[in-house]
Amino acid sequence: MKRNVISIVLGGGRGTRLFPLTYSRSKPAVPIAGKYRLVDIPISNCLNSGLNKILVLTQFNSASLNSHIKNSYHFDIFSKGFVDILAAEQNVENESWYQGTADAVRQSMKHLEKYDYDYILILSGDQLYQMDFREMLDFHIENGGDLTIATIPVVAKDATGFGILKSDDEGNITSFYEKPEYDILDGLKSEVSEENKHKGKEYLASMGIYIFTKTILKKMFDEGAGDDFGKDIIPNSIGKYKTLSYQFEGYWTDIGTIESFYEANLDLCQDLPQFNLFSSSPIYTRARMLPPSKINGSYVSKAVFGDGCIIMADKIENSVIGNRTRIDKGSTIVNSYVMGADFYQNTTEIVLNDRSGRPNMGIGKYCYIEKAILDKNCYIGDNVKIIGGKHLPDGDYGTHSVQDGIVVVKKGAVLPSGTHIG
């Protein structure tokens, strides 16, 4: 079956719900699982599905994302594959920036004219899942779809936070509601598997993954269908174009909030995590050529480590430890994500810091850190205590913020020795 596809990964907007992780980077550039970036997930899913023509659309806080893409994805000169950046731009015809997800694709269509493709796969850059897009493409082609939306069954409690659609027995979408009110959910149940029905997952949520037939998408744009896929394109296509629901049965989560980001990372530490990093489908990322991690005298349980770490902690439990993390003796890390560092401090700087009493990069001696996210390049002194929990009010506190009881220490923050948070 012919699968002549170009994939477009949306670089995301301001990402305010992930602040402060998005203060200096876009959502897809946020580090995940200790050694990857969120954008590595959709790109890896494409490559593992045999789709190697990929464009990443960027606009807000794009420098970090651009650098990661440039340094990570290279194909040999005999391959027709690519992962390229398409940055938002002003021009003679259009002086505005992207006004929504659909507008981002619309403004980029002129750059796609040089490529040979029949279908466009639209992906979000801030989701965690493993999916073979070939199966979705086959479903789209075999059923003569104009637009196919990947959907996942959810329970009523979660349905109000998603775009919920209703489909018939043949997978045709008959109605769509963006974040519907709870009292209208009864009329939005769709046909799902017996297992999902038993779990109460009878509502189909849009995953923000779309396949368009090229000619149809161009026609929609010519008709001025709107600036956003969820709010405009999808509702307007129902009944007018053959709009299909492709049900996905695997693990999928939208990394939209600090809480969902935190939970998705800590789940990786479980014996059988929902997202399997050890599957036969690898997650690709930048090759950093770091040394192996070194752990000395530490009790470690349910922890994930990146590369190049130097660990002398007393205990690390149910935590993700990112690349180049340094944790000194006597410290305890529990239920936390430490993102690590972008570089190593040289020995001269370390000696000078010790003399002046300034913390070194990493986590000092006899610290206790629980329910926290430490962004990259943090300087945590000795005897620092960070204890997150529902007792802490949400807010921004300079060196750190609190959301849903999770303490997020900002990138490059300095917490002097003896600092107590919580």
Description of the molecule:
The chain is an alpha/beta fold and 422 residues long. It is 20% helix and 29% strand. The protein has 10 helices and 30 strands. Strands 15, 17, 19, 20, 22, 23, 25, 26, 27, 28 and 30 form an 11-stranded mixed beta sheet that branches. Strands 1, 4, 5, 6, 8, 9, 10, 11 and 12 form a 9-stranded mixed beta sheet that branches. The radius of gyration is 23 Å and the shape is globular. The termini are far apart. The mean pLDDT is 92.
Please specify the SSE layout and strand pairing.
Elements: E1 5-10, E2 31-32, E3 36-37, H1 40-48, E4 53-58, H2 63-72, E5 82-87, H3 101-108, E6 119-124, E7 127-129, H4 133-142, E8 147-154, H5 156-159, E9 163-167, E10 173-178, H6 194-198, E11 203-213, H7 214-222, H8 229-237, E12 243-247, E13 252-254, H9 258-267, E14 294-295, E15 299-305, E16 310-311, E17 315-321, E18 326-327, E19 332-334, E20 337-338, H10 347-356, E21 362-363, E22 368-370, E23 372-374, E24 379-380, E25 385-387, E26 395-396, E27 400-403, E28 406-409, E29 414-415, E30 420-421
Parallel strand pairs: 1-4, 1-6, 4-5, 8-12, 14-16, 15-17, 16-18, 17-19, 17-20, 19-22, 20-23, 21-24, 22-25, 23-28, 24-29, 25-30
Antiparallel strand pairs: 2-3, 6-11, 7-13, 8-11, 9-10, 9-11, 26-27, 27-28
EC number: 2.7.7.27
Domain Nucleotidyl transferase: 7-270
Organism: Chryseobacterium kwangjuense
